[in-house]
Write a structure and sequence with these properties.
The chain is α/β, with parallel strands linked by helices. The chain is built from 14 helices and 8 strands.
Length: about 325
């Protein structure tokens, strides 16, 4: 008969709470408890208050498990495997998906600077690439694939959490500066008016920032609320700012069920004329999504804005004919 996890001294600088794991990896607390009973993994310790805490090696393995689940594997097939086996399976599965288009420029020097904690040099190199490539190509050909590479390194344990945070902060600084340097269209001509944010459970904002950069380049009028905005506040902001499109970003860590429930509730509360766009790495967006949500890749944002403008022009023409 299975016993409760042992009460042991806990180093809070090394161990993660169950809430930490749910938030950072995207596996629900209920799921972690089910795996613990059914598969005998994870095997958390207990803190002085009797709460579950997860050692770093278990957290790293959970990242690999989550990555394989996102690739279509079943929990029972992967949870009891070792970390090295999981890493090899993830790499093999990634190769099986086919080669990615070659990024420009090469990504490894950026990753090396991050791992060496040379953040000033990393920001300088990113800024130089931005000047050469232009904002649109910088996002699609460098920032997006580099962020994927950093995420893979983090998921496989090759990059520490703080190193991933350093990278995120560096790229955020470069992107924000670039966005501010693009003249915003005025309210009358900068259509569509796009509100960018994330649901309350989503604290990752890098994808959101990249989407904002691409929208700004295409002349949309962007209003960003940042991350973790309550649903009612999103609705209120959309009404007050006369928003045409609400765009949400979802990371791989976002719980799929929460993502779908949040999108459905938001759609029900928003005015019918407001479109709902979503993008990111959440598994829920890669499955069959409801018709009321338009799921976009970064590269598809420009086309989506053009399509919105075409429909708006047709509606204006129809109104003039009726008038």
């Amino acid at each position: 008969m299975k016993t409760d996890p042992p009460f042991l001294p806990v180093d809070h600088h090394v161990n993660s709470t169950i809430s930490d794991v749910e938030r950072d990896i995207g596996v629900a607390k209920e799921t972690l408890r089910v795996w613990e009973r059914r598969y005998d993994f994870p095997q958390p310790l207990r803190d002085p208050h009797g709460e579950r805490v997860y050692p770093l090696d278990q957290v790293r393995k959970l990242r690999l498990v989550k990555r394989l689940l996102d690739l279509g594997f079943r929990p029972g097939k992967v949870i009891q495997l070792g970390a090295e086996q999981l890493r090899a399976m993830a790499e093999q599965a990634a190769v099986g998906k086919g080669p990615r288009s070659a990024p420009h420029p090469a990504l490894e020097p950026y990753l090396d600077l991050c791992k060496a904690h040379e953040m000033e040099a990393l920001r300088r190199k990113l800024s130089q690439a931005l000047l050469v490539m232009g904002l649109k190509s910088f996002v699609t050909d460098l920032a997006a694939p580099l962020t994927d590479l950093v995420g893979e390194a983090w998921a496989s344990g090759q990059m520490a959490v703080f190193e991933e945070h350093l990278y995120t902060e560096s790229l955020t600084m470069v992107l924000r500066s670039a966005i501010f340097s693009v003249p915003q269209s005025n309210a009358n001509h900068g259509a569509p008016r796009i509100l960018l944010t994330t649901l309350p459970q989503e604290r990752h904002g890098l994808g959101l920032l990249m989407a904002e950069a691409l929208c700004v380049v295409d002349g949309a009028h962007c209003i960003s609320l940042g991350v973790q905005t309550p649903l009612l506040d999103i609705v209120e902001a959309a009404r007050a700012q006369r928003i045409d499109v609400v765009a949400l970003s979802f990371s791989a860590a976002m719980n799929p069920r929460q993502a779908m429930v949040g999108l459905a509730e938001l759609r029900a509360r928003l005015p019918k004329a407001v479109q709902l766009w979503a993008g990111g790495e959440c598994v829920a967006l890669k499955r069959r999504t409801p018709a009321f949500v338009q799921v976009l890749e970064l590269a598809g944002i420009s086309q989506a804005i053009a399509a919105w403008r075409a429909r708006a022009a047709q509606a204006d023409d129809a109104t003039l004919r009726l008038g």
